[in-house]
Structure formats: structure tokens, C-alpha cells
TrEMBL record:
Residues 18-259 form the ARM repeat N-terminal plant domain. The lineage of its organism: Eukaryota, Viridiplantae, Streptophyta, Embryophyta, Tracheophyta. This is ARM repeat N-terminal plant domain-containing protein. Gene3D superfamilies: Leucine-rich Repeat Variant (1.25.10.10), Tetratricopeptide repeat domain (1.25.40.10).
Length: 602
């Protein structure tokens, strides 16, 4: 389609130069040297387009799309009536089916909604002008699915921008409950819809041609279509969540957003590698945690709390959001004792975390939240394991710290370092002899006497214990110790061996996303330390990434659902392999290299 458009554009431009008789020709107006004539010509074009039928409509819209994408802050077109023009074109496409299906008009609503979204992305004054020009009713029609999921994607993007400004939120809120209901429905179902309507079609010839053309723009074949469809489906979901965020942060329609079924759905919504810049589901959950009603709804679901807890002990970019959610829930007396028995078992592994990104004293904040009203808490908590863990935190962060501050001089600390090293060596010897349980005992003995200030020594001991737990087939204990080691590393989550060990432990528990994130971080860490000229991806890490990439594929669940109802063509295996190769390529492009090494030795 791209080459076809270029040919038509060149042909149209040549003809225009020779004998254009259209007084409202967009391309002629754009070439006009006189500024006032140029502006008048463009304004005339915007007025005439919705009421005239022309094969040039799609060419003009395509040009406007490109300009809006590259120059979204340029005030020229917004001041000349582009929003009114786009709104009328969308409405025409929705109301007049015969027009929509004629010529190449099927592309017009998509481009028009995209233009609105691009121009309202950064400038509140453009958003105000767009609302005054009547863009919301036609965008709502697209949001309702009057054409297809492709148009829904750009409509929800544009509405999200309009809802994000105080001056235009009220205009979107006129349709408040419908918008929220539609956005929650789209976020929950769009992945299945895109799979059923496009990616999962057994006969690819049945894919709508204009969808394929918009996805690839004439470049690439089936593989490119599949990659772009995955990216667009993820964006449709994430932009729907962004629209919901605009209402949730104002505590509007929380009864619709906080439905237990939808909260559980949110836990499975993440941007993945194709849309890694979006916090997706956890972003909305965190906003809900800032409201009392939101916290109450979230605390009622053990499934949601467990998912937040898993995120808090991961190397995901949004780990800090998971921690924030748990701290907000723990500080609220109405939700504290609904989640503390679960949260304590996870957050206990993070109490020695100094900083996470730009956030400092994270471990101290966690300790304060867990030990808040410690004596009263003990009488309200029934779970013995949670009580034992709270006592461990008290002993480590209060009693041991107090004792070391009073009694541990620099000289004594150095003597303790030597003693810890000797006991660790004994543990290493036991490990090499295959006596894993005895090695674990020695590493624990060394940890018990290791001063808190010896963070590197404590990191290694926790990591070694994690390896022992792995060999003893205890993934929960392995995750706990490797997480503690990663909290002690500098910067946080940078100790390669602990990342690999936790990745294996998460794999044993079937937590594919967490395992994948740790494995990618493990390889990235190795890349940064390698100076060789050849890339060597450790086979065990490559195999893990391949396995977890398949398990976390955006359409994995949708494919599984489809397979239960009908025989779906088994053609996505190559695509999963391609996604794995894509990850490897990204890593290699960093121009850093990996050498294979034994990452599973203590």
C-alpha cells in the first residue's frame, strides 16, 4: 500500500502542478508561498473534505497523519479547523456504510482519530479546541466498536489524552459510566479479540486487507503483521487502562473499576517487551490504592495481593509500584490485617534494600510499615509463620542493629569478617562434596553472625543459600534468599548469580513472567561485564528465555481458549522462536558480549 500511495501521490502532485482546478486542493494549498493564501487554502480544504467525495481523501489524511505524528505541537492545523474536519469525517464513516466501503475511505476514520490523538497529546489548548469542535461524539462511536478494534485503538488513545486534562475531563465525563464500562471491557477482552479477528485466523487471506496495510504500511510480510498486531493489541489494552486511570485518580466510577473480576484481570495485564514503557495493570492498581474504597476492594482479593507481592520481589521495572501498593495497604488500619499475613512473607525479603532507582531507604520504609504497632499486631495475627517472620525482622532490624551500634567497633567488625569468611569456606567445601544440607547449615551460621554493615558478605551468603535451596527442590526458600541477595547488591537487582538462581526458582513455581524478567536481567548484567569480541549467550539462559517467551506470549491465553473450541492452525511456534531471536538481537546490538560461565556454583 505504501508504494501504491507514493505512486498516486506523485501522480496527483504532477497533475496538480499541470492543471489542478480544485480550489480546495490540500496539496496545492501546502505549496502556496503566500502565508495568508496558504492558510486560507488549508482552512477551505478542511471545510470541504467532509462534504465532498474524492479519491484523494485517504492521501490527504495520510499526509495529515504523518504531519501530526512528527509535529504534534505545531498550532497551524489546529487553528484552521482540523478537529472539526476529522470529527465530521469519522461521523460520516460511522453513519454512511456505503461511503466507508467506497474507494479507500475505509482508512479515513482511523487516520482522522489518530490525528486528533496526536494533536491533543501534549497541548491542553489543542485539547480544548478539539472538544469545542465536537470530537468526542464520533470518538465515542469508534470506542463502541462501530467499525473495528483498529479504530478502537486510536479512539481510546485520543479520549485518554482529552480525559487527562482538567479543562477537558468534564467533556469526556459526560459519558462517564459508558466510557469506564467500555474501557474495562476493552482492556479485558481486546487480546482475545485481536487474536480471533486477526492473528489466529487459520486462513490469513481472511484478514481484513486494510488492517494488514495499516499494520505494515506495505513493508514486510506475515511476520511483520503478527509483530505489529501484538504491539497494537498491547497498546489498545494499555491505552484503555490509561483512560481508566484518568477516572480512578479522581475516584470516579470506582464501583465499575473495582469489580473483583476486573481487578483479577488487571493482574495479567502488563506491557511485555513490546510495550515495556507502560505500567499497564499495576499502574491502575496503584492509583486505586490511593483511595479508601480502592484499597478495600483490592484487599478483599487474595489473588490480587499475591500478584502484587510477586511483583514486589521481581526485577520488573515496575517493582517499586508493587511495593508502593503493599505499603499503602499496610498503613491503612482497615486493610492492614487483611493482607499482613501474606505481605509479610514477601516484604521480609526486602528489608535490607537501600535504594530502588531514584527511591532511597526503601527497606527502612518497608520495615516501619511491617513493624507498625508491632506488639498490638502480634495479638491480631493468627498465622504462626507470619509471626515468626515479623519476629525475625524485629531481631534483625531493631535488636541486632542496636547491639552492633553499641558494641561493634571497626576492629571487631574486621575480625567478624574473617570469621564469617572461614565459616563460608567450610560451607563451600561441604557443597563441593555434595553435602548440600550441611553446606546450607554453614551458610546460615555465617549469616547469623555476619554484621549488617558487611553487605557484600551477606549478599554472597544469601546467594549461596539460594543455590542450596534450588538443589534441595525448595523454590520458595530459593526465591527468598536470592531476593535478599539482590537487595544487598549495589545497585539493587544487579547480582548475576542471584538473578539466575531466582529465575530458575520462579520457573519451578510456574511464574513465567518473573522468571523471564530475571533471566533477561541476568544476561544484560553479563553483557555489561564482558569485553570480548564474540557474543556467547549461555545455553541454559537462552533455553530459559525461549521457554518463558513462549509462556508469556501476549496471545498465549487467547490461543489456548480458541484451541478448546476449535482446531486453530499451529502456526505460532515459529513466531515465538522469532520473538526469542528478536530479544537476542536486541541484546547483541548493545555491542557488549557474553562469555559462558558457571553461574550456578556458589
Amino acid at each position: 500500500m505504501g508504494s501504491l500511495k507514493k505512486e498516486k501521490l506523485n501522480s496527483t502532485s504532477t497533475t496538480t502542478e499541470q492543471s489542478c482546478t480544485n480550489p480546495s486542493c490540500f496539496f496545492c494549498a501546502m505549496k502556496e508561498q503566500n502565508l495568508s493564501l496558504r492558510r486560507a487554502g488549508i482552512a477551505s480544504c478542511f471545510k470541504e473534505m467532509p462534504i465532498k467525495d474524492s479519491q484523494e481523501h485517504v492521501l490527504v489524511l495520510s499526509s495529515l497523519w504523518n504531519i501530526a505524528m512528527t509535529q504534534p505541537d505545531d498550532p497551524e492545523f489546529p487553528s484552521l479547523g482540523i478537529f472539526n474536519c476529522m470529527a465530521r469525517l469519522i461521523q460520516k464513516g460511522v453513519n454512511d456504510r456505503s461511503w466507508l466501503l467506497g474507494d479507500e475511505n475505509i482508512y479515513v476514520p482511523y487516520y482522522a482519530a489518530h490525528v486528533i490523538g496526536s494533536y491533543t497529546m501534549n497541548k491542553v489548548e489543542f485539547a480544548v479546541r478539539a472538544v469545542e469542535s465536537g470530537v468526542i461524539p464520533p470518538l465515542m462511536e469508534l470506542l463502541r466498536g462501530k467499525i473495528s478494534w483498529v479504530e478502537q485503538r486510536v479512539a481510546v488513545r485520543a479520549l485518554g489524552h482529552l480525559a487527562s486534562y482538567e479543562r477537558t475531563f468534564a467533556a469526556v465525563a459526560v459519558h462517564e459510566r459508558e466510557v469506564v464500562k467500555l474501557a474495562t471491557e476493552i482492556a479485558s477482552t481486546c487480546i482475545d479479540v485481536v487474536f480471533d479477528k486477526f492473528v489466529g485466523l487459520k486462513d490469513t487471506a481472511k484478514r481484513l486487507k486494510y488492517h494488514s496495510n495499516l499494520l505494515t504500511r506495505g513493508v514486510g510480510g506475515l511476520d511483520m503483521e503478527n509483530r505489529k498486531a501484538e504491539e497494537w493489541a498491547s497498546q489498545l489494552q494499555c491505552w484503555s487502562l490509561y483512560l481508566l486511570n484518568c477516572f480512578a485518580c479522581k475516584e470516579r466510577c470506582l464501583d465499575l473499576i473495582c469489580r473483583q473480576e476486573f481487578l483479577k484481570d488487571l493482574c495479567g495485564m502488563w506491557g511485555r517487551l513490546v510495550n515495556h514503557s507502560s505500567p499497564a495493570g499495576i499502574g491502575l492498581i496503584r492509583i486505586l490504592c490511593y483511595s479508601k474504597n480502592g484499597r478495600k476492594s483490592i484487599a478483599e482479593s487474595k489473588e490480587v495481593i499475591n500478584n502484587i507481592c510477586n511483583l514486589s520481589r521481581s526485577s520488573d521495572d515496575w517493582q517499586y509500584m508493587g511495593i508502593d501498593c503493599l505499603l499503602l495497604l499496610l498503613k491503612d488500619q482497615d486493610t492492614r490485617y487483611k493482607i499482613i499475613e501474606i505481605a509479610t512473607l514477601f516484604l521480609a525479603d526486602l528489608v535490607e534494600l537501600k535504594s530502588l532507582g531514584i527511591r532511597s531507604n526503601v527497606g527502612e520504609a518497608i520495615t516501619r510499615a511491617l513493624l507498625l504497632d508491632y506488639k498490638k499486631s502480634k495479638s491480631k495475627i493468627k498465622n504462626k509463620k507470619a509471626l515468626d517472620v515479623l519476629q525475625e525482622i524485629w531481631d534483625l532490624k531493631v535488636e541486632k542493629r542496636k547491639l552492633e551500634k553499641i558494641m561493634l567497633s571497626e576492629e571487631k567488625a574486621e575480625k567478624m569478617r574473617v570469621l564469617v569468611g572461614l565459616i563460608k569456606q567450610q560451607g563451600n567445601q561441604m557443597f563441593c562434596l555434595g553435602d548440600i544440607e550441611e553446606a546450607l547449615v554453614k551458610y546460615t551460621e555465617a549469616l547469623d553472625i555476619c554484621p549488617l554493615r558487611l553487605r557484600n558478605e551477606r549478599m554472597v551468603l544469601h546467594s549461596n543459600r539460594a543455590q542450596c535451596h534450588l538443589l534441595l527442590r525448595d523454590p520458595d526458600a530459593a526465591i527468598s534468599d536470592s531476593t535478599r541477595a539482590l537487595c544487598l547488591s549495589n545497585p539493587a537487582n544487579s547480582h548475576s548469580k542471584s538473578l539466575w538462581r531466582r529465575s530458575q526458582a520462579y520457573d519451578m513455581k510456574g511464574l513465567a513472567k518473573e522468571s523471564l524478567m530475571d533471566c533477561i536481567m541476568f544476561i544484560n548484567g553479563c553483557i555489561k561485564t564482558e569485553t570480548g569480541k564474540r557474543v556467547k549467550i549461555p545455553y541454559y539462559a537462552a533455553r530459559m528465555i525461549s521457554k518463558q517467551t513462549e509462556a508469556t506470549w501476549l496471545f498465549a491465553s487467547a490461543k489456548s481458549k480458541a484451541s478448546r473450541n476449535e482446531a486453530v492452525q499451529e502456526s505460532d511456534g515459529e513466531y515465538v522462536l522469532q520473538k526469542y531471536e528478536e530479544i537476542m538481537k536486541i541484546m547483541m546490538e548493545k555491542k557488549c558480549f557474553i562469555s559462558a560461565f558457571q553461574a550456578c556454583q556458589p
